[in-house]
Automatic annotation (TrEMBL):
Residues 1-26 form the signal peptide. GO terms for cellular component: membrane. It is found in: Membrane. This is non-specific serine/threonine protein kinase. It comes from Riccia sorocarpa. The keyword Cell division does not apply. PANTHER family: OS07G0107800 PROTEIN-RELATED, REPEAT FAMILY PROTEIN, PUTATIVE, EXPRESSED-RELATED. Residues 967-977 have a biased composition (Low complexity). Its main location: membrane.
Length: 1004
């Protein structure tokens, strides 16, 4: 037999015909059925649907086989495995091939199965750039079988559908994913480009409670038609075995029609019946538009004079259905768009005068109509990033870079056509070369590619006119430094250290060091200054006898260079000694502080006996005493005091505000520590470190000028009698992250690395916009160049009680993990709003905030330690992340603590979790509101539609995809459904309550 198909609709009719002829032997063309986490393909023996592994659809995630104890009652093989996705990235996406400008049903299945213990799995689901739903599963909800179903239309020109899981601070997971092509005219009343449908309910009305759900192959699109819940059992069921065609002219030709098996049963009555459907408030917050399909077909044997005609009324908006007109086979379809309210919609069906038979209802569908996210990233940026990802091994990142949430390693502005503004790929273990296409990201302000394995040369970046930060240090980049970098007038930080760059530094670039450019080029052995002749390494020529002819030449050259260095060194020493002996001393001035007189002679550090000191501090401006006195108005306004001495407010002649720190007579910090702080801060520049602007130095008395931080210290915003305004939970998260970044920089990007040694809330200062910066390097210590932070530096113990690392305090071994411990105490201060020593406790053993918080956390009593000022304002996942991180940082043994890289990563995840919760409130109010996190109880909450745990596929008995009715008693073999959260997905409820008054009496 030859089948010819003509035109678009002809093709679909052919497919339907082929399905009818051979529906039991093969699945429909275009079906994609993914068994997530499986290692082999299989064919379902009942439906002949072919299930494949997800290996070719996604590049991230980890396979898991579920426990047999959970899955014994589930015959569906595809549910017995899952793939889970760690929260270390913002999204994990399946790419499903899909024809352009076509309609599809997308169905996702979730069964936790206890694959993770004691973990709340909170994540969102997106299709394309639209967040369609959110899940929040408590760890005790392991046997809940959840299904989400959506009907979408692909964009013109698109060849795929992107289905993504977006972790909200915890791992996401997925058991099965299905894609089903629909006919072009199906749901065309509502599915447009710019809209999608979310499935709420689909009933095979009139089916008995023992009947299975009807799916493929009866429904060629594999929609599931469920037996209605038991609350409908008082309706009269009618059935017929008569063939009811599913195609005809008139209203019955609409493509949404159910299969014949569904049309062969119906609710029917001689007079009337009614019910109410009520979507929940959180669904109504997203949309008030709903798509209702009702299907009517004759199931009774009518006589020649019989007429079945009835009215269909939705909230008194009435239509008439006359089935006799279409007898014997066609059926009537009613598919209105409805605006539902919190009161629900009343569905009423009533016989009309002169009719002999009353209403029937064979099938019912209900969907919410949602808007598709229309924002997208600039096409130029998308194209540039595609090349960028391919060359640096980032191809697993798919979909729009900025929507629905950005890739973990970039940020975007949030305009309709978004632009990529920062890329942060530090420590991503990248290989490959820097793509030239990065220059097409013309809105880029910050680019971090440091600490990777990148090779090749630096491309032309002259189009990045907004670039302020370029970090390429610690790679294997070779070649010359491009002259074009000097044309980037906005560039403030250019870090190229520890690469294989060669040739001279461009003069125009080098000269900008005196005009605000922080240029780092050390540890590039073949790089030289702009006026130097760079060393050329010539190849060694080997003689026939195996010896090198260059040996004597090189030896002589080296000897000559050494001799020259010695001679020049002696001349410089004599000249400097003579110059120093002739330098006149500056006058001594007396400054009064209370009862203490402090005498200062302010000179440049360059006047010290050590020439190396002058080199070390050349980047900080030297100030005279007169300039300091003028700036501080003779030390009029004291704004603080510390171990170093008093701190005064000042303003320089150019208007720059400064904090002026004076050394006091009783300070333990002497000249060495002063030079230590000056030398470190003169070369250390980071947006999260307080900048040293200048200094004065005289024997035993020293003055430092820092940038002024108008919002004071973190401590002043958390507690104490001098407490400033209380900072919000989100502000605290940002402060923690920014302070951690500053400390991470000291630990990893300084050579030699720097240990702060006195991290505390008083040493974290805040700008007018609450940007956190780490301060006070007066007692900081550099680590040995080969120290990784774990070997330790033996030193006298210095620091602040309550913040001291126990290992440092007891053994005198200072490591980077000592700073991590102190930072963990700061995190506890942020969470608790309490000082590190709790003076209210009588028992001396309980003085420490760390021990008190640890005891409460071990008792699972997090709420008791949270600052009352922020209770009810935080996302529970983010708070747990921060609390767990704090406790990891204050582990008694340094080897068990994270390093600052890991701390920063964990804080980024906590911030993203908080952002996602807030963002989901905007895009999808189904996400729990900020502060609404809680332990979910299976007895008090519901969740979406559950398929039956056997092949009878009973309808949903609770949850968002169907009315919340009592469970259907016929499924006694299935485990009780337990649901995770009322804030996820949508539910539809039936009114009135469960007593017999919910249905109007039938007039007789």
């Amino acid at each position: 037999m030859t089948i010819r198909c003509a035109g678009q609709y002809g093709l679909w009719l052919c497919l339907l015909l082929i399905s009818t002829l051979n529906s039991a032997s093969a699945q429909e063309p275009g079906f994609i059925s993914i068994d997530c986490g499986a290692t082999s393909n299989f064919t379902d023996p009942v439906t002949n649907i072919h299930w494949t592994t997800d290996a070719s659809y996604i590049r991230t995630g980890i396979n898991k086989i579920l426990s047999g104890a959970v899955t014994t009652a589930i015959n569906d093989k595809q549910i017995k495995t899952l793939r889970y996705f760690p929260a270390d990235r913002s999204r994990h996406c399946y790419t499903l091939p899909a024809a352009s400008n076509s309609t599809f049903l997308v169905r996702a299945s979730f069964l936790h199965g206890g694959f993770q213990a004691a973990v709340d799995n909170s994540f969102s689901i997106s299709i394309g750039s639209t967040i369609v739903d959110s899940l929040n599963l408590a760890p005790n909800v392991t046997d809940t079988f959840l299904v989400g179903e959506y009907i979408i239309k692909t964009d013109l020109g698109s060849d795929s559908i992107l289905f993504c899981l977006l972790p909200n601070g915890s791992d996401a997971f997925l058991n099965a994913l299905e894609l089903r092509p629909l006919a072009p005219d199906m749901y065309s009343e509502s599915v447009q480009i710019g809209e999608y449908l979310k499935f709420l309910l689909r009933y095979n009305c009139g089916a008995d409670s023992t009947d299975p759900a009807i799916r493929y192959p009866d429904d060629p699109y594999d929609r599931a038609w469920y037996v209605p819940p038991s609350k409908f059992s008082k309706f009269l069921n009618g059935k017929t075995s008569r063939n009811i065609p599913v195609t005809s002219s008139g209203p019955a030709a609409v493509g949404d029609r159910p299969p014949m098996a569904v049309l062969q049963s119906a609710w029917h009555d001689m007079s009337w019946f009614w019910f109410v459907l009520t979507p929940p408030d959180y669904e109504l917050e997203l949309t008030q538009a709903f798509y209702v399909n009702m299907f009517f077909a004759e199931v009774d044997d009518l006589g020649p004079s019989d007429v079945r005609e009835f009215s269909v009324s939705l909230d008194n908006k009435m239509s008439l259905v006359n089935l006799t007109k279409w007898w014997p086979g066609p059926y009537e379809l009613y598919n209105p768009h409805r605006k539902f309210t919190s009161a629900g919609t009343n569905f009423s069906f009533q016989i009309v005068p002169d009719a002999t038979f009353g209403p029937v209802l064979n099938a019912l569908e209900l969907y919410s109509v949602r808007e598709v996210e229309s924002s997208s990233t600039s096409t130029a940026d998308v194209s540039a990033l595609d090349t960028f990802k391919a060359l640096l091994g980032l191809s697993s990142w798919t979909g729009d870079p900025c929507f629905p949430i950005p890739y973990s390693w970039l940020t975007c502005d949030q305009d309709t056509s978004a632009r990529v503004i920062t890329i942060n790929l530090s420590n991503y273990n990248l290989t490959g070369t820097i793509p030239a296409s990065v220059a097409d990201l013309t809105a880029l302000t910050d680019l971090w590619l440091d600490n990777n394995k990148i090779t090749g040369s630096i491309p032309d970046l002259s189009k990045l006119t907004k670039l302020t930060t370029l970090h390429l240090q610690n790679n294997s980049i070779s070649g010359a430094i491009p002259d074009t970098l000097a044309t980037l007038t906005s560039l403030k930080e250019l870090w190229l250290s520890n690469n294989q760059l060669s040739g001279p530094i461009p003069a125009a670039l080098y000269n900008r060091k005196d005009h605000g450019l922080d240029l780092k080029t050390d540890r590039n052995k073949n790089l030289c200054g702009p006026t130097e002749n760079c060393k050329v390494v010539a190849p060694v020529t080997i003689s026939k006898g195996g010896g090198s002819k260059l040996g004597p030449i090189i030896g002589g050259a080296v000897g000559g260079v050494v001799a020259l260095i010695v001679i020049v060194g002696l001349l410089v020493f004599c000249f400097c000694r003579k110059s120093f002996s002739r330098k006149p001393a500056l006058p001594v001035t007396s400054l009064a502080f209370g009862d203490t007189n402090i005498h200062h002679t302010c000179t440049s550090v360059a006047s010290s006996n050590s020439a190396s000191n002058a080199a070390a501090v050349r980047q900080a401006r030297p100030f005279t005493l007169k300039e300091v006195e003028h700036a501080t108005n003779n030390y009029k306004d004291q704004i603080g005091v510390g171990g170093y001495g008093p701190v005064f407010y000042g303003k320089l002649t150019d208007g720059t505000e400064v904090a002026v720190k004076l050394n006091s007579d009783n300070s333990e910090q002497g000249r060495t520590e002063f030079l230590n702080e000056v030398s470190f801060l003169s070369v250390v520049h980071h947006k999260n470190l307080v900048s040293l602007l200048g200094y004065c130095e005289d024997d035993g008395h020293h003055i430092l000028l820092y940038e002024f931080m108008p919002s004071g210290t973190l401590r002043e915003h958390l507690y104490g009698k001098d407490m400033l305004r209380k900072i919000s939970w989100r502000e605290r998260l940002d402060i923690a992250l920014n302070a951690a970044k500053g400390l991470e920089y000291l630990h990893n990007d300084c050579v030699p690395r720097i240990i702060h040694r006195d991290i505390k809330s008083n040493n974290i200062l805040l700008s007018d916009k609450l940007l956190a910066k780490v301060a006070d390097f007066g007692i900081s210590r550099s680590t040995p160049e080969d120290d990784t932070g774990s070997s330790g530096v033996s030193t006298l113990v210095k620091g602040t009680t309550g913040y001291l690392d126990p290992e440092y305090y007891t053994q005198g071994k200072l490591t980077q993990k000592s700073d991590v411990y102190s930072f963990g105490v700061v995190l506890l201060e942020i969470i608790c709003g309490r000082p590190p020593i709790l003076q209210t406790f009588i028992d001396p053993q309980e003085h420490m905030l760390v021990e008190w918080a640890r005891g409460q956390m071990n008792s699972n009593n997090l709420e008791s330690i949270i600052d009352p000022h922020i209770r009810g304002t935080y996302n529970r996942e983010a708070m747990w992340k921060l609390a767990e991180l704090a406790m990891d940082c204050v582990e008694p043994h340094g080897v068990n603590r994270p390093d600052m890289n890991q701390v920063v990563r964990a804080l980024i995840i906590a911030v993203e979790s908080e952002e996602q919760a807030t963002r989901t409130q905007v895009y999808s109010p189904t996400q729990p509101s900020v502060g609404g996190g809680r332990n979910y109880s299976a007895d008090t909450v519901d969740y979406p539609l559950t398929y039956s745990t056997d092949n009878s596929s009973l309808p949903p008995t609770e949850g968002p995809f169907a009315p919340t009715y009592p469970p259907n008693g016929s499924n006694s073999s299935a485990p009780a459904s337990r649901f995770a959260s009322q804030e996820t997905f949508s539910s539809v409820s039936l009114d009135p309550d469960t007593d017999s008054s919910w249905m109007n009496p039938k007039p007789r």
